[in-house]
TrEMBL record, chains A, B:
Keywords: Oxidoreductase. Residues 5-454 form the Aldehyde dehydrogenase domain. It comes from the Bacteria. CDD domains: ALDH_KGSADH. This is Aldehyde dehydrogenase (NADP(+)).
């Protein structure tokens, strides 16, 4: 029997409760957390870029210091294999270090200087200088599907802290023990690096009320979220209904459409079938970039492709999903798909006897039947995917035109195909944040060029990315200083460029002194 | 008697109808305009950067070609003096040319290239390239107070077209003839530069329905607005309630608080009084950056300052406001101020006998009385301003802390004052988009460093500016291309950098070829 206002984690492989009880934050505790984050913000935002970079590096080191105990607890809470979690920990740590390097280098703040022209006619030109400054305390929601890389110490938290904001993380209730361990790494780093106590805080809870209180709190100035459309949209609406609306950077998933052009399969049936089967089933299909919908342009290799793909899927074992709720939704999605007219049940993979284990499923239909059932275009989170046969280029272009916003789109084709379908790329540009050619959408590279985002309903903020170094800009806003003396200016904008950063000096990028 | 579904302009200096009848766009006409803008977008966005730059330059030339007839009509519709309108036309033209230069230079699109590492372990690194692309057709609302520089060919329209978006402008009903003339310049430039017909369109109307239909249309992908809080907030709410929410960049005015620190007035009473009187009354006080609220830290020069300021205000003549409605609101605001406890009616300027002419008004009160009447902190659009006497640094800091979001804040002080009040700057950074030291907030410089924006309720989009070259970024979003062959890449991202733009190549800014 557990304590009132506490909750426990559930092992999705066994449906058994796991040890450890976690306090469901009440409205007073949330209020206190935001007040601490607000007080800390005034101190943290004034820390030097090097102090903030060192702090992020220190958090990374402290997470590593948690050792295998972190991976083991995480495995129990998520059913994700230890090897995957080890890789995800590496990604989490590298991400923190990448943001540290961005902060240390310093040019991300978009320093701009327009010097005065006192004798300009008819009116003098004043000295004006521009940079980005942090927004304030940010609420970050941990995601279930990446319990390390998109959760407590994930890309949102890393970019929030890198931008100079403080953070209150709402841990995902599916892995509260993992969240608490990762939070402990932050608390140690805060102490070691002499950062204010409220720089990072974790609140937990298995009710929507916790997140709602947090987003409605006047002290919170932005929201980072990765999860379902329902969850993200609810936070977006709450944030816009506040007396002071705030930006919500919600990444809400996607079907990640794939287009297989006529020449793509020649000599590559085996490769593409294997690659897609892997991409569909990776992490039990619980990736934001999981390819859930493919349009296959008819060719002489189509049947061979489906045969090979079916063999691959039949042979793949997938384990437990992250939670019982997710499994239930997945099963329901499969049932819905099967009720649709003209949908062929192409292949079923292997599953284990674990209670929340599911099998991969692929389906096949024609573009005509697909068009009749718009629900077939909706994401079913998990290792299922639907393949739609098209006969003409016009059908491919129309299918692309009918897409909503997605995170990615993928196109397979020969060089000739790609040139012949230039119009497809023109359409996809308007629909997604990332286009992949002859590759797979899963495996999101954390780098300077990454865009993990896209038009609504993939996100609530198509003008941003939640992965890669540009994610930092979500949590900053521009300010300009007019007619400041050098002593009053922040280091980034002082005449002698003490931070040695790139600046737009009277319209020219340079690292020069002014 | 005018035709049904048409409206006429009113001369605010005479309250007489002006010649010319303007169609109130109905829902079908708006639908057609958005459909044309959508069709044009697919062509316009693929134009070369040089074609777009040439087009913007051509629009500027065509506006100039309208000659004095434009200024004369504008003067009749707005009661703004011809000299002011001539200056504003210059600003409008320079703004178009500045955006042309930004597009021609090309680096604004934030090109980023991370090259592949095929042999990276455990998984290969793909080639990923990033740039900004235009959002789609944009709805722009002309503002009443800058009938040229913030209206049909204003900063919003210029930055929308520079970003590669097409635009449907809702003309402000206070100057429909001016709007139509400026629109004709666009139509000529479209023809001369061989741009698609729907690149720019003007719709007119004197009802809210016109703007509402436009913002609700699924083809519109973003909104630019300058005007009242009520108008901007209504569009923001409409846009968020759409099936596909879209960003609204609404600049909704501000009180632009001023802080006069204890040493500021020594030897400068005359200068500052004259400067503030000018800034308060410029354009009949109808500037977004009009200083409506000042905190005056007690010094031995305080009384002399108020005396001098009163003399200046008493001597200044202001003319008609832009519309009868604006005049009525202004008068109401003055009456509200006078009903508040402890508000001294400091000075009244001169007005003409024209029906919508108003006099400048300044008021004085104590911080104690100011705190009792929160309405005193609200903007009263027009040439009125309230001065609040403070006694202590604590009162100044508290007043700053109590501010809502504003476009600007201004601080007057000696070097010693500025250092002594460092805490004031720390607070103001969180409240405004631009901080001016020993200067005046009116006269917004159009340059690379300008931020004309600020936290809500000054705008609905604190992460952007509506003036200056950075305004272009409001109408673009990032996309990335993974594993593209060089031939498939847009020019900005091709290996040999044919546009010679700055790019972030594996994390290093350069103009190098890859």
């Amino acid at each position: 029997m557990h304590k009132e206002n506490y909750f426990q984690a559930i092992n999705p492989s066994t449906n058994q409760l796991l040890g450890g009880e976690f306090k469901i934050a009440n409205i007073n505790e949330i209020d206190n957390a935001v007040k601490k984050a607000t007080a800390a913000f005034d101190i943290y935002r004034k820390k030097s870029t090097h102090s903030i970079a060192d702090f992020l590096d220190c958090v990374a080191d402290e997470i590593l210091s948690l050792g295998d105990a972190l991976l083991e607890r995480c495995h129990l809470e998520t059913a994700l294999p230890l090897a995957r979690l080890q890789g995800e920990r590496g990604r989490t740590i590298n991400q923190l270090k990448l943001f540290a390097s961005v902060v240390r280098e310093g040019s991300w703040i978009d320093a701009r200087i327009d010097t005065a022209i006192p004798d300009r006619s008819p009116i003098p030109k004043p000295d004006i200088r521009h940079m980005l400054i942090p927004l304030g305390p940010v609420a970050v929601f941990g995601a279930s599907n990446f319990p390390l890389a998109f959760s407590v110490a994930g890309g949102d938290t890393a970019s929030v802290l890198a931008a100079g904001c403080t953070v209150v993380v709402k841990g995902h209730p599916a892995h509260p023990g993992t969240s608490e361990m990762v939070a402990s790494a932050f608390y140690k780093a805060i102490e070691k690096c002499d950062m204010p106590e409220g720089t990072f805080q974790l609140v937990q809870g298995n009710t929507n009320a916790v997140g709602e209180h947090l987003v409605k709190h006047s002290g919170i100035k932005a929201v980072g979220f990765t999860g379902s459309f329902g969850g993200g949209k609810a936070l977006f609406d709450l944030a816009n209904a506040r007396p002071e609306p705030i930006p919500v950077f919600a990444e809400m998933g996607s079907t990640n459409p794939v287009f297989i052009l006529p020449g793509a399969l020649e000599g590559k049936t085996e490769d593409i079938a294997a690659g897609l089967a892997g991409s569909i089933t990776l992490g039990v299909g619980q990736f934001c970039t999981n390819p859930g919908l493919s349009f296959v342009q008819k060719s002489e290799y189509t049947n061979q492709f489906y045969e090979t793909l079916s063999e691959k899927i039949n042979a793949i074992s997938t384990g437990s999903m992250l939670t019982g709720g997710i499994k239930k939704m997945y099963d329901q999605g499969i049932q819905n798909t099967l009720t649709k007219e003209g949908v062929e049940d192409l292949a079923i993979g292997k599953s284990s006897t674990e209670p929340n284990s599911v099998a991969a499923r692929i389906f096949r239909t024609t573009i005509e039947n697909f068009s009749k059932s718009p629900e077939l275009a909706e994401e079913n989170f998990g290792p299922s995917s639907i393949f739609v046969d098209t006969q003409t280029k016009g059908q491919i272009l129309e299918a692309a035109n009918n897409l909503e916003g997605h995170i990615t789109a993928t196109v397979f084709g020969t060089d000739a195909d790609l040139m012949n379908y230039k119009g497809l790329f023109d359409i996809l540009e308007k629909k997604v944040g990332r286009i992949v050619v002859n590759g797979y959408p899963t495996g999101v590279e954390v780098c300077h060029s990454m865009v993990h985002g896209g038009p609504y309903p993939a996100t609530t903020a198509s003008q941003s990315t939640s992965v890669g170094t540009n994610a930092i800009k979500r949590f900053a806003r521009p300010i300009c200083y007019q007619n400041y003396s050098d002593i009053l200016l922040p280091a980034a904008l002082k005449n002698d460029n003490p931070l040695s950063i790139w600046r737009l000096l009277n319209g020219e990028l340079s690292k020069n002194k002014n």
